[in-house]
Design goal:
By secondary structure, the protein is of the alpha/beta class. The protein has one domain: 2-Layer Sandwich (Nucleotidyltransferase, domain 5), CATH 3.30.420. About 30% of the residues lie in helices and about 25% in strands.
């Protein structure tokens, strides 16, 4: 099974589990009250609902962007950390809103099979980060 992480947008995210036959599960993740998007909550829920352990994952696919600076970064950091800790490959691919989850998963699985363990994904933000409120002058 492969873990697919899409946290590119600050108001919505999804975590999917998929294999070569298709998507087994998609879990929506919404921001907490403080606005923080925690992909670990969705990953834990998806694994539990499908009786799958982290150790049984074959690879990880993350949305590499473009997207929101903090949201995109949180998903990529979690993906890179799990990849390193589990010793499984990771790839980043752009996941556009108009692309169905199944299509993103299928493309990601093809790419992650070519990836090497210990590769990392870097975000592609698409614009300069806007991570603080503008100063009033």
């Amino acid at each position: 099974m492969y873990l697919i992480i899409n946290t590119a947008y600050k108001d919505k995210a999804w975590i999917a589990l998929a294999n070569e036959e298709g998507v087994a599960s998609v879990v929506s993740v919404v921001p907490e009250q403080n606005g923080h998007m925690d992909p670990l909550v969705g990953i834990q829920r998806a694994l539990k609902e499908n009786s799958i352990t982290l150790e049984s994952l074959k690879g990880i696919v993350v949305n590499s962007g473009p997207g929101s600076f903090s949201s995109l970064r949180s998903g990529i950091v979690v993906g890179n950390t799990l990849s390193f800790g589990l010793g499984i490959p990771i790839v980043g691919i752009p996941m556009h809103d108009e692309r169905p989850v199944a299509q993103s998963a299928a493309l990601g699985i093809i790419e992650v099979k070519k990836a090497k363990v210990w590769d990392i994904v870097s975000p592609e933000y698409g614009s300069e980060p806007n991570i603080s409120k503008p100063k009033n002058r």
